[in-house]
Amino acid sequence: MTTVLETRNLVKRFGAFAATNDVSLKVEKGARQALIGPNGAGKTTLINLLTGVLEPTSGSVILEGQDITRLPSHQRVRRGIVRTFQINQLFNELTPLQSLALTVSNQLGISGRLWQALGRDERVAQRCDELLKQFHLDDVQDQKVALLAYGKRRQLEIATALACNPRMLLLDEPVAGVPEGERQEIFDIVNALPAEVTVLLIEHDMDLVFNFARTVSVLVNGALFAEGDVKSIASDPRVKSVYLGE
Ligand code: ADP
Fold first, then answer.
1. In total, how many domains does the chain have?
2. ipTM score of the complex?
């Protein structure tokens, strides 16, 4: 098995408090892995260390055998580790089609104004079309992002991350805040992500975790608490007590 992403003895302290405490995590190629943990377990801190938003106090982050611990965020994206965009990073005044065209044209190294990328480059138009269909956004492709339903905006976050051609996709709580009626569509999209993209899902919602993941890593108090396949984690009394004791 090839390891795509690995952390080695990762530690992040805020003063004396260790939000990430000696985490050694491996994500294998093609994985459908989830990182779960109660509120305050250190999930966000760990993502920030993986994406370069935070620098660790000690330890390292390895992507496809290369140490990326000190690389800035944009260089990590270029190397293929991409976190889902956050709603507040989306351009409210653009449409989903325009948003994706920007990212896709940037990926293809096409500079120039938006209308040029959209109107003149067949590759951009074709890739946008694929992404819009894949993420069930084709019916709203020309509406302003600001006017989209919340669930659709979350779909656009994932689509925008995928437009960066990630090898390692960090799916950051894709159903958080999504109304009940819009969740299934996101489950379906997440389950249909291309097999060649390795996925680490950071999630609090157990329905999605057990619906999607094959492997689960449980974080508690900044440290890895349990790891295993979905069934063993779901039936682990220690894990249950951590969640029930929340
Ligand atoms: P989760 O995403 O699992 O809810 P976080 O990574 O947000 O957990 O937080 C883990 C712990 O680290 C929490 O106790 C939080 O208060 C603390 N923490 C996170 N960021 C900071 C910071 N910048 N300064 C101090 N403490 C922080």
1. 2
2. 0.97
